[in-house]
Amino acid sequence: MSRSLPFIAAEENIAELSLRSIVLAVLLTLLLAMSNAYLALKLGILTSASIPAAIISMGILRLFKNATILENNAVQTAASAGEAVAGGIVYTIPALIIIGYWQHFDYLTNFFIAASGGVLGVLFSIPLRRILVNEKALRFPEGQAIAEVLKTSADKIGLRDLVWGGLIGGGLELLQVGFKILANSWSYWFVVKRSIFGMGAGFSATMIGAGYLVGYDMALSIFLGAIISWIIALPIVSQFYPEFLLHYPVEKAAQALWNSEMRYLGIGAMLFAGIWTFIKLIKPLFHSMRKSLRYFLDKNNLTLQLPRTDRDIPLPFIFIGVLIIAAILFLFFKWFSPWHKLVWMEIFLHL
């Protein structure tokens, strides 16, 4: 199977993991992880942190004369890992509150779940690299977009657009939230017999940016989910719970019905999608592990100097890292954490 040549040849030895790239990666990872956690809790979707990180780091690294594209790539890769950790937290830990198992969030326990899940996620993704990245049949539109952003990092464009976008978004948010001049939501509800009909919509610069990042497919799936929940399911479900209309106005009755009954439609859809994704990954994971094991056991490959673009952390180091993290988790949740019954399933879902 043919493979495309890298933008930077494997024989070239240029700066990649420099001190400035590591410091910038840590700062952007923290910033974008926090913003993505907020967006995921507010909108229910996780936006891409890679493209904003690539653009921001591109603008900052331009201040240095000898900055390289590989440093920029390292920064956006770290930011992507922070986005994944934020997604693992906001999509799993609140479920323990919803089901009533947790009554509050414990910072130390959440930190260990996020740290262990992040490290294990990185270790588990290493054997998947060859089968996912080198397989030409697989398409990564977001990765291709990031590559184009990085390739054009030498051009003096992008930073000005980023500043203008931030000013416009901040001004719109100020008019909506600060001065209350523009509305940020709209809804209309009415009752036919015992069925509640209606729908609402929100508008903000945050949602526009999130929609641009997730693309048409994700936006369409969210729109279809809203149609199924509010247009189809709500009138049917409200027939069986007339007491909500007796105690609340129609708009509050719809929201209360959603909070108490209908949100489980979305939880079931998310659970099924996660299981289906896991099933689809079994075969690629098996092939990738077999290839990695073959590389490790082949003594001829051990004596060869692999090119820079094809080096991985050795498989024994991955196994050792997984065992160390597993031992630390066992000791922490056995003796230090007050929640040790559901937490292993939580970590599995976090991954």
TrEMBL record:
Keywords: Membrane, Transmembrane, Transmembrane helix, Transport
Top-rank lineage group of the source organism: Bacteria
Entries under InterPro entries matching the protein: Oligopep_transpt (IPR004814), OPT (IPR004813), YSL-like (IPR045035)
Cellular component per GO, a single term: membrane
TM spans (from-to): 21-39, 45-64, 84-102, 108-128, 162-183, 195-215, 222-242, 262-282, 315-336
Pfam families tied to this protein: OPT
Signal peptide location: none
Membrane topology: Multi-pass membrane protein
Gene Ontology molecular function terms on file: oligopeptide transmembrane transporter activity
Subcellular compartments: Membrane
Protein name as catalogued: Putative oligopeptide transporter, OPT family
Source organism of the structure: Legionella oakridgensis ATCC 33761 = DSM 21215
Organism lineage string: Bacteria, Pseudomonadati, Pseudomonadota, Gammaproteobacteria, Legionellales
